[in-house]
Amino acid sequence: MPLLSACGGSDSGSREGTTSGKDAKKILPAFVASNVVTPDIPSKNGSSQGFTAKLDGADLKTSVAKKLGKGGKVTIMSPFWGSPPKGNNPYYTAMNDLIGVDVQWQNQDGNTYDQKLGAILASSKIPDVVVIPGWNMMGKIPSAISGKFADLGPYLSGDKVKEYPNLAAIPSGAWQRSIFGGKLMGLPMPAPTAANIVPLYRQDIFDKEGYEVPRSADEFMALCKDITNARAKVWACGDMKWTAMNSFGVRGGGEKPLWWDMEDGKLINRLETPEYLEAIEWTRKLFAAGVVHPDFKLGKSQTVDPAPKFAAGEFLIWDNNIVHWYGQQASQATQNPDFKIWGMDIWNHDGGDPTLYAANPAGIFAFVNKKASESVIRDVLAVANVTAAPYGTKEWMMTNYGVEGTHYTIKDGVPVKNDKGNNEVLNAYVMVASPAPTIAHPDLPDYTKAMVEWEQRMGAFTKKSSFWGLQITEPSRYTNLANDFEQLENDIIRGHKKISDMQQAVSDWKSKGGDKLRDWYKKLLDENGTAAS
């Protein structure tokens, strides 16, 4: 059985469990790598692929030979950050013409999207397509996915995907993550599986002051004390919790969900491991030593962007997602040519090689309404086949930059958006489906190379946990079991609570359902196996 029969459920309602092994192989689309463009730096060890060469509009390749859309209308609800543009703007019009589909956007505020999702999924008026990010898959939403959305397997499983070559080139891990309730339901946004939290640092200041990049927890603490001079308004770092989780080898690293894995024949949760407590305690010591910028101590970093103070040299080390490595460098380099941000390799706390855990291979999904007709589903797949076009193609350029001359110009091989481009070309079509993970910054090729190579080096120390890549729908009775742990972590590292409070919380978690959830996960593993082969 692909699903836990003990958990019940039916085709029309929610289905708990997961799907892997032989059952998944019957469902997954065939993988056919794209040969339209060749990356300058191929993917390795779960990294993104990298493109460093300059772009030339005349040299862009074509990855969609003919319009697959049949002219139908498709409504898409998606999270949006910022002010959505008007519906009939030149970007939307050009994209719809390229695809052959009349896409009507129902953009919703990304900051309150979970509330809107819940209301829409509980109603009878669900749009043709609903985009759901992984971080919004809480509470009843995962079970609603199985009941409210269409099975795309009849259109994409096996060789059927070859009708949509850009979808066929999406890595299989991302599709595995798109299986809900035993059916292929999501159109994925693939992600690199290598670590994505980088300790960014001001290399220009390090070089000037003679600071050396640390290689252990003790070296890091000593460096932080050396850097910090509160009177001069200079602190060493921001909140280093995510890097602490990585350097102490905590399962799941900087990722937030509770993490289960097998150890010595037993199924354990990250909460129960000594590494988890050690990582929190070490981060607490950084705060207690006064080396963390006060904005992080006060929790202001949640509401006030720390970037200007990092740029001003008020703190020199910043735990951040790898995508911000380029962003921070690009935003400052024009004003200060000496400005240089680099990324520290993650070290094991004792100075050896780190133990890292693979991130999930997809994190955002687009779902098609279960009531959609075949023609609507085909039109949605036509949209996705364009938005999943690889870097260096006309379709990628249109999806990400809009119309040349209207939304952007190419200056010295680099596409540059104008005001119209910045207002219209964002947050929309890229949410439907994406190509294999890619880093491409032709304006800063050295940084593209550095980012991909950082992922590749960290990828060499990365292993897959027992449940890696599986889309798991837990029984609803457990959905709120772990809600308070992240807040408790943050309270402990800021000195408001103690490690003993965490130990008590873990004990309570086990008795309130954690141990029963362990049994549920163990049965899941016994019956389904893993996807991490």
TrEMBL record:
It comes from the Bacteria. Pfam families: SBP_bac_8. InterPro entries: Bact_solute-bd_prot1, SBP. Residues 1-21 are annotated as: Disordered. Keywords: Lipoprotein, Signal, Transport. Coiled coil: none annotated. It is found in: Cell envelope. GO terms for cellular component: cell envelope. Belongs to the bacterial solute-binding protein 1 family. This is Lipoprotein. It comes from Streptomyces flaveus.
